[in-house]
# Entry
Amino acid sequence: MYTPKSAVIKEIISENHLVKTFRLSMVDSQGQTIPFRFEAGQFVMLSVPHRGEAPISISSIPANPSFFDLTIRKAGLLTSAIQEMAVGDHLGVRGPFGHGFPLDDLLGKDLLLVAGGIGLAPLKGVMESCLSWKKVKKLTDISLTLCYGSRTPEDICFRATIEKWQQDGVSCRLTVDEADPSWQGEEGLVTGLLADQSSSGDGYALVCGPPVMIRATIARLQAFGWSDEHILTTLERHMKCGVGVCGHCHLDNTMVCTDGPVFTLSQLQEMKVAELG
Amino acid sequence: MKETTVILAKDNLQGLLRKLGRDKSLVAPVTNQWGDTLYTEITDIDGTELDLSKQPQASLKGFFFPQQEVIQTYDTTAGYEFTPQRHIQPTLFFGVRSCDLHAVLYMDMIFSSPERDDAYFARRQDTTIITLACTTPFANCFCNATGSGPFMEYGYDLQLTDLGDRFLVEAGRQQGEQILQAWGHFFEPATEEDVQLQYQLSLEAGGRFQRKVEVEHACRILASGEVDEQIWQQLSARCADCGGCAYVCPTCTCFNIRDAQQEPSKGERIRSWDACTFSGFTRMAGGHNPINSDHALQRRFLHKLKYDVEKHGKPSCVGCGRCVDICFGHVDITTFIEAVVED
Ligand SMILES: Cc1cc2nc3c(=O)[nH]c(=O)nc-3n(C[C@H](O)[C@H](O)[C@H](O)COP(=O)(O)OP(=O)(O)OC[C@H]3O[C@@H](n4cnc5c(N)ncnc54)[C@H](O)[C@@H]3O)c2cc1C
Ligand code: SF4
Ligand code: FES
# Structure
């Protein structure tokens, strides 16, 4: 339960000056790839040599068990050390842990992702799953929307993915807090993009970002008629074990690592979380 | 009378422990040269004086869940390999107080879910626990209010009750019965009077508690309502963030995990005690802390008196009173319980 298994870095994508995406495969002692199955929204406990462990969301689509992506922002010791690592280097992985997004409920429904910064990482796999479902089932009448806020144009992550989504018919709306001369798009907080995002009734809104952003976004969505059961978010907490024992991620009687990290707004309201103010 | 209830003359105790200590390490309360009474590993039973008159200052927690332990070593020479470290030491614990055994039974449960915690159970497996019922509770004890003493009703291998010149010995679990069978010549049959006397002593012990802590009343209030914000603020203001309460607490099991590099390509993964009352316990990279400092004590008290009651049907405070002694701000759990009940 606490012993990490070996993973090897297959590919590294630089998202911006602080963020890189690492494509990993789990490997056995002979270096052979072994399958790794997960749900969108789940996380792993990632070990980096001499730096300990950190919880990191899986940012790729769960369809292919031969690899998975972790998108990591430089925040402290561990997350800086990994930025120096190269393809072929080994990492330690425990998990996957937690409950992901309820994909069975989401497939085939209208979907609105509202993300701030690296908060898009845990939501990305959901969009990819819904998009491929839409294609396979030839569902022309469902709408997939991304509202994505970054601090500056430089901070935007997943550019290539977003471009591909756009070509596939996802309505992608980007905004930055501080524009620079190169920026042609919207300026302002991500909540500013939500003006016409009213609920279709059975659609779902998925929200992830810094606590203030989550708070403001949820307030907006409620005002636009989204029901508390159809607003989903994923929480970030200090975590050490990932399996509900170490106590660090406590929220009243709830352990975010095992009971979450994905919660509906109704669940959050019962827990008096900091994200709701 | 149960066959599993017998008498051990006090003169026979040393001899029995000498035998029992042959194939297991022996741990029992000893008062050291500085006057501290601690559960201590005894290598020379004939040269060591046990002290069964005082409450050991530390519980058994550290024997199974050490303050710091290496749970894995790792090696990055070829890849990145982790090797679990397990410490197995068959041990007989003697003279354990009821509160402390209740706490071990609680830890057994905590470390069994969602999976068996190998590091904990390596130390815990193959241990025998012989308790000593408390005929005279100590100054801060309130185990009568938490349902965890002063006598045990289940969970012990053997329970001893001091009847003056002899102990009444009851076998609870199989390992205790095996001791009675294997070392029968140390024991004599118990009489009806012995058992009556033990009953009498247990009643008297119940009347000797110096503190009346209304645990059940507080749990009922906590189950149904909110705690006044002022109570949290007042208690948190006097908490010095030292973690002492959680460290001496026999049922506080929160932990931290960190790595310590030993050589360029080798190191250890270390698990150590942590305390939910520490301000850094919930702080995240970048400094954001979802728990505000007025609520630093909330988790600890509600976990023991509310959430564990919801989850397991009883509070996880065992009433040992150690936190009362250690807290110089007087914001131990009894202060909280009194504040809740008075409010
Ligand atoms: C469920 C979940 C998913 C996450 N997903 C991502 C992701 O996809 N990408 C990403 O970049 N970041 C993610 N994070 C945040 C990431 O875990 C932290 O940035 C990281 O732990 C910081 O570690 P550090 O050693 O670099 O920072 P330091 O500041 O050096 O770490 C200090 C200490 O605090 C602990 N710590 C600090 N913050 C956290 C935290 N949030 N959770 C647990 N322990 C913490 C560390 O273990 C370490 O011991 C996620 C966090 C959670 C809880
Ligand atoms: S709390 Fe109860 S069992 Fe523990 S030492 Fe005091 S009287 Fe004995
Ligand atoms: S991370 Fe340890 S309990 Fe959640």
